[in-house]
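Throughout our pipeline, every protein is held as a single compact record rather than as scattered files. The remainder of this section carries one protein's record, kept here as part of the documentation.

===
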Amino acid sequence: MEDDGGARVRLVELLREHSLVLGEVTLSSGKKTTYYIDARRTVMLPEGQRAAGKLIARHATALGATAVGGPVMAAIPLACAAISVPEGRDLVGFFVRKERKEHGLQRWVEGGAEPGDRVLVVEDTVTTGGSTVSAIERIRDEGFEIAGVLSLVDRLSGGGEAIAAAAGAPYEALTTIDDIYPDRPD
């Protein structure tokens, strides 16, 4: 991915410093691992938010997307980052609920995007891609056009391929585990 003013390099440094957790952890897939990437620890810092936002907004614009969002917990800080930087001034954010509310508008997709919009689906960390694939299915069912999918970190465990197949659109990662933890034991 093309960098802009060192944003990607700085993002990798911040992820390594703030998001890499060493020790046994159980992933959402149920698999155990000796390291974990908690990307929210980086994205919820001002410098991390600016770096991620700049890169995500540029990617969305390059794909012709007008909205950025994805699975509820992962996408909210990423979408907010993208729409809060100057590069994202023409974008809106959204998120996909895990369950439909029983009151209000009862929408699956919440935020500034509307059916028919061309969207960039974002995810913080991809391992198997399961939650992203579920969100992609819901986004498509609700009438949105998927321009592409972008993750902050890809653990290189096959999730990227599953996501690309489900999306029928390009999948790309801003960083991979090789960038953040090149000397990992696996």
In short: The mean pLDDT is 92.
